[in-house]
Every structure is written in C-alpha cells, then in structure tokens.
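Note to self: the last two entries modelled the partners one at a time, which told us nothing about the interface. This time every component goes in together.
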Amino acid sequence: MDNLNAVLDAISHPSRRAILDRLSRGPARVTEIAEPFDMSLNAVSKHLKVLEGAGLIHREVQGREHFIEFRGEPLRLVSSWVHYYEQFWSQHLDRFEDHFKAKRKRKP
Amino acid sequence: MDNLNAVLDAISHPSRRAILDRLSRGPARVTEIAEPFDMSLNAVSKHLKVLEGAGLIHREVQGREHFIEFRGEPLRLVSSWVHYYEQFWSQHLDRFEDHFKAKRKRKP
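The predicted structure of the combined assembly is written out below.
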C-alpha cells in the first residue's frame, strides 16, 4: 500500500517517466541520463532519489563509475491496481458498440 | 500527457483511491462518500476536486441532490503507460523460471 503510493507519486512526474523510459533501454550514468533533458545534474539527482525510494531504480557501483539500473517490479503494483478498473471502460465500449449495433438493425 | 500527470497524481493518494473504489460500486452523495472514512467533509471535497480535475468523477445534479459518479476512462492512460513495462517483470520471471529449470536438469 505504502509502496503503491510511492510508485504512483514517482511516476506522476513526466521527467521521471522520461528517465524510466531511458533506463528501460539499458543502465546509464547520471550524466548520460541528464544529457538529453534540459535539466541540471542536481535536478536529475533529486528525481533519481524519488525513483530509488519507490524501488524503481538501483545504483550499481563499478569502480569509480555509478550506473543506474531500471527495476520494473514495483510497477506491477500499478498494473494490479488499474486492472480492476479495466471492466469500466470495456463496459463503456460494450454499451457504445451495442448502441451502434441497435442503430444499424433499425435501418432497413 | 498532461492528463496522465493529473490522473497519476490523483490516484497517488490512498484516500482518493479509496473514494474511487467506493464510487466504482455506484454513485454517491458527498456525505455518503465521507461517512466510512475518518475525514471531514472539507477534506473529502478537496479530494473530490482533485479527482474531478483528472476527469475521474462527474457531478450529477438531481434537484437539490449532488451525486458523484465514477468515470473510469482516464485510467486507460495509466493502463497504456504501464503496459510497456510489463515485459520487464515477465522477462524477470522467465529468467527466474529458466534458472530453476536448469537447476532441475542438473540433478540426476
């Protein structure tokens, strides 16, 4: 529960979602993560701390290099939570479809 | 994109997720929503405003009564976003499974 809050909070910021997208394609150094964004290293570090708190990244120290790795598992909590609600938009689409089927039938 | 931020921010609070859960079982008056929670009407109203901003609820005025209705569609954005990341935990599980399969094979 607490972790779901942390994960949702972490992914609610577009920069943090962009960072996750980058890291999902492979580990990277902090400077490499900052590069494509118009962000200071300090701002990136803050975002990485939030992601780390939610368990979405892991720091791997190799000698003098720090690599940031993506961890996808915490996102399962989001997937499970949203799964229950899928019935509502599919119900909605079903009703929408029924409406058009009924309309089509009414035509000669 | 802006809406995904608003939706994720709205669902990141446990009280707002609890309110959505209640409303997913049918429309309710503000007082009815507040009842099971240890929250003031004022606090509930604030949460409802955040949910409304994200398009997750709709206010239906019937005479002097205000009913709050759940709207599931914005959660599709969350579902679509998280869908891409599902490959990461299933990959992880696959590796986990391979590990045990290999271990079993090694036994006589």
